[in-house]
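Data availability (excerpt). The following record was deposited with the supplementary files.
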Amino acid sequence: MSATFKIGLTRDFLNPDGQLGYGDIGLELLNQHPGVSWDFLAENTPELRPDQIRDYDALLVLSPRVSASTLNGSDRLKVIARFGVGYDSVDVAACTRNGVLLTITPDGVRRPVAVSAITLLLALSHKLLIKDRLTREGRWHERLQHMGQGVTGRTLGLIGLGNIGREIARLAAPFGMTTLGYDPHVPADALAGLTVERVDLEGLLTRSDYVIVCCALVPETRHLIRESSLGLMKPGACLINVARGGVVNQTDLTIALQTGRLGAAALDVFETEPVAPDDPILKLDNVIVTPHAVCWTDEMFLGTGRNACQSLLDVADGRCPKHLVNREVLGQPQLRVPLSAA
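Predicted structure:
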């Protein structure tokens, strides 16, 4: 390992004027470590190039893609800290082949994303944006035509019972909702202390009044929600997606909303981002849309930044980071950094 552990931050953390665009992201942790230095990459690119990263031991990455090409010829890089929990923008197999660790930040996003999901659920149930529009447009007399729906006694279905799904279940408990969960990968003991009934996907879709998508985007979940699965949902049910756009077939969802098969939807993510201004889903009154940023708060960015920075410091000090994605690289000869514990 080099005498100084050098960390590069992708430039999309900065505003055009060169100032941090997301407030405090915990960089004081890096400043306090005497063996670490850091700076921002010189360019803001959609996919990182080998020449951008060759002089770094570690990367803190917001949105740029990390591909197999990115890692070609980069013999110094040891760890990539993805700023967030999704890592579909990173070629995990390529990281593993090259002995590069990949970490994510569940501790920083768990509560903010869960709160944002509940926010969207309540906004849909109370028809918040419709009532806002009525008031602004002087259509006060139409308010009786847009009666909301109480959530007490309703059924909430969670597609994904990872850290975020379980946190949503905790936050929803005081509302008196029945909570169902679908996740074939989470063990039963992970739900200890939660009132969540585990069901298969069909059972969740047919019984739920509100469905929240909070699972990772992997090959098996791409278009998990499509015409056939949307057809199982209750007439008038609501779909909320705070995961990744690719989990839902957006064309099929648009048709279900246009025809009244579904009551409403709230989407923080889309199959193509940024979403096209002429996308038909943006024309619908029964849809709340946000720009993959509904959970962006000072709390989220500080917690996520500290989580990511701590992972980098763990590696700098020879410790195995807490939230390691590609654990299979541990103990392999291609691993570029010795770690004291796994």
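Summary of structural features: The chain has eleven helices and twelve strands.
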